[in-house]
Specification:
Layout lengths: L1 H8 L14 H9 L9 H11 L27 H10 L10 H21 L9 H5 L6 H10 L10 H7 L9 H4 L3 H8 L10
């Protein structure tokens, strides 16, 4: 996603650390570093500008993922060797189910608390859907919402599916859990009838 935003609003990104995806403690330290009286969202502008001044030619920075020792986090369009490695690595994964529900509840609670914190601090926020960005064919309306929110990039009328595909990384994930998970039936059994049943696809 950030690769597309970066290319369509300025230029390609350079490496940056991911905030705040380093874990619960890292996230706590990050948010605790926010000035307590800064409730109007200026802190995030200052934080972004702190990195932006080093790369003035960039429109939007991508928060990059840590790389696996043997497999790149993303593949460029046309890099078939990389794509095949990703597809192979992303199939037949066994997802432990013993604590699955508990872990999903923890993650969901973290997301809800983050949403409340952003709202309390009046940080401008937009909620978007990965599925609507990448799995809806020729519909670019979700991307248009993002660019409109940012106030940069192509307009809804200018935005095309072809431009998005050229700007992004190659697709390397299979959208069906019965392919990505070797124990899909077991996972499905655990999630059926819970609030997380909607995650199955």
């Amino acid at each position: 996603m950030f690769q597309v935003l970066s290319k369509l609003t300025g230029s390609n990104n350079h490496h940056l650390l991911e905030y705040t995806g380093g874990g619960t403690e890292v996230s706590k330290r990050f948010f605790q570093s926010i000035p307590p009286k800064d409730v109007n969202g200026n802190w995030i502008v200052k934080f972004m500008c702190w990195q932006q001044h080093e790369w003035p030619d960039l429109g939007v920075h991508q928060f990059t993922h840590r790389r696996n020792e043997t497999i790149d986090a993303h593949c460029q369009v046309g890099d078939e060797e990389c794509i095949q490695k990703q597809m192979k690595a992303g199939a037949g994964i066994e997802l432990p189910t013993r604590r699955l529900l508990k872990e999903l509840k923890v993650l969901n609670d973290m997301e809800q608390r983050t949403d409340r914190l952003l709202a309390d601090m009046k940080v401008p926020t937009i909620h978007i859907s990965y599925e609507k960005l990448f799995l809806v064919g020729n519909d670019t309306s979700e991307w248009a919402r993002v660019f409109d929110f940012l106030g940069v990039g192509p307009s809804k009328e200018e935005l095309t599916v072809d431009a998005i595909k050229k700007a992004g990384h190659a697709a390397t994930s299979v959208p069906f859990h019965n392919t990505t998970l070797s124990n899909y039936a077991e996972v499905r059994e655990v999630l059926l009838g819970t609030e997380f049943e909607r995650l199955l696809h």
